[in-house]
Amino acid sequence: MTTIDRRAMITLLLGGGAAAAAGLALLPGPAESAPFFVPKDYHAEPGYPIENVVWVRRRRRWRKVCWWRRGYKVCRWRRSRW
Fold first, then answer.
1. Among candidate residues 6, 2, 26, the one with its CA nearest the CA of residue 14
2. What is the C-alpha separation between 27 and 34, in angstroms, rounded?
3. C-alpha–C-alpha distance, residues 33 and 27, integer Å
4. Are residues 37 and 46 in contact, defined by beta-carbon separation less than 8 angstroms?
5. Selection from 67, 23, 56 nearest residue 75 by Cα
6. For 31-72, what is each residue's pLDDT tens digit?
7. Is residue 1 predicted with pLDDT exceeding 60?
8. Element (H or E) spanning 4, and its range?
9. Taking the CA of residue 30 as centre, how many other CA atoms within 13 Å lie in the half-sphere pointing to its CB?
10. In this predicted model, what pLDDT tens digit does every residue of 31-40 receive, in sequence order?
């Protein structure tokens, strides 16, 4: 295995730091996004589907779960959240 001298290590670290700084400096600023749904009529307001969301409650279901207990495997039916 080859040894790394101090000059090579400092050159590597400074080069990496300079590349990271240049990459952060070139990041674009925030931009405004377009509406989610573009209406066909230019004078109408865009409609958003979030206002028409219907929430449905899911019922819990049973599933088989296995785990290790005291050196042997135990499998049982347990209730899941969804």
1. 6
2. 20
3. 17
4. yes
5. 67
6. 666 656 655 666 656 556 566 677 777 777 788 899 999 999
7. no
8. none
9. 2
10. 666 656 655 6
How many C-beta neighbours within 10 Å does residue 40 have? 5
**pTM of the complete model:** 0.33
Residue 51 backbone dihedrals phi, psi, to 5 degrees: -70, -25
Give residue for tokens 């409650």: 57
Angle, vertex CA 38, rays to CA 33 and CA 39, nearest 5: 150
What does the H/E/C string look like for 7-61?
HHHHHHHHHHHHHHHHHHHCCCCCCCCCCCCCCCCCCCCCCCHHHHCCCCCCCCC
